[in-house]
Design goal:
By secondary structure, this protein is an alpha+beta fold. Helices cover 26% and strands 22% of the residues.
Amino acid sequence: MVLEEVGAVPDAVLPVAALAGHLRLGTAFEPEGLQAGLLASHLRAAMAAIEARTGKALIRRGFRLRLERWREAGVQPLPVAPVAVLGEVAVIGADGARVVAEAGRFALVPDAHRPRLVAVAGALPAIPAGGHVEIGLTAGFAALWEDVPDDLAQAVLLLAAEFYENRHDPGDGRGGMPASVLALIGRWRTVRLLGGGGA
């Protein structure tokens, strides 16, 4: 299974000014200066870490999921939530031939933690030997930062501030997230009960 972004979060959406305020940068902060670029990079890093830990996309954007096999014949859990739009499902053969499945053959079952692609009747499209399937989807809580759940937004600010304040620290090799961040994201984490590939 490979999940990749097909649309980046625009710089204008990032809460750079909020992070500057959190860090108390005051009048030294210039929204268009080098400091803003540094803050934006720390925000992106913090978002990536929290999204990886929770399985949630904070800002709405496009993703593409590639699978070599289905989890089940009629159901495929999706590895990111919340899914706002289910896009094209295409089966790619070993020879590279691409066949787009009829949209009426499958449906999205929304879920806050584990959305699923399900067959409307029968099974999901067969994946040929040596081939794979690509699923397009749009996932994320909101298009604007102001609409991201408050606890997740605060977790991003706290973690970005941690990255900023310790950017010159060689570290102690322990890594890990601060306890305050873990407490904020705890309810959003997905408990994965099933192992193996394809999900």
